[in-house]
Amino acid sequence: MSAGRVRIKLSSVVSDLLGASGLRILRALAAGETEPKQLVALGDDRLKCTEEQLVDALTGSSQPMHREMLALQLERLQLIDTQIAKLNNLIAQAMKPHQEAVMRLAEVPGLGVDSAQQIIAEVGVEASTFSSAAELTSWVGTCPGKDESAEQNHSSRSAKGNKYLRRVLNQAAHAAVK
User: Which stretches in the chain have pLDDT values below 70?
Assistant: First the structure.
């Protein structure tokens, strides 16, 4: 075995490496635990792999430098999670005056509170800037372009529109279908 390789293949058997089981195992690895059986015990019963597969994936050799690098990455992940929580709190405070509109919009199939907040942030609470639904969909870029010449209609590409809102609406449409 090469001294520079850890040879731990946790991501090959754990689908959500940053889920509860994955994080418990990664934290134990960063803390210096190297015994595969001890690491396997940190995995949840809901993992979709056998105990033997998990033992095989966790069998390797980590050096102190590897553990320190893993610990630094886990610290960075914790910082990002903390910052995301603070940002979500700020967004919730900013949307508090529009809470009723957010909740009504979140009831639409495929939408949730986050997507409702994004839609309101982009369009406004009442969408009064747009005279019609057609104007709104044109602004978002979700309707086909109009290319008419000599009274013949030639369909063309959709306008570029608001890419952020278009992304939210596309995700909502996919979620509603499922």
Answer: 1-4, 144-150, 152-159
Q: pTM above the 0.90 mark?
A: no
In this structure, are strands 145-149 and 152-156 parallel, antiparallel, or unpaired? antiparallel
Q: How far apart are CA 42 and CA 30, in angstroms?
A: 14
The confidence score (pLDDT) of residue 38 equals 93
So what's the pLDDT on residue 1? 41
Tell me, what amino acid is at 58? L
The tokens for 12 are: 């090959």
Confirm if 27 and 43 have CB atoms less than 8 A apart. no
The SS3 of residue 154 is: strand
* Residue 14: C-alpha distances to residues 8, 11, 23, 39, 45 (Å): 12, 5, 11, 13, 12
Q: Quick check: 39 and 33 in contact, CB under 8 A?
A: yes
Q: Are 121 and 105 in contact (CB under 8 A)?
A: no
Half-sphere exposure of 21 (CA within 13 A, CB side): 19
Q: 32, 42 in Cβ contact below 8 A?
A: no
Q: How many other CB atoms sit within 10 Å of the CB of residue 12?
A: 11
Give me the pLDDT at residue 124, please: 87
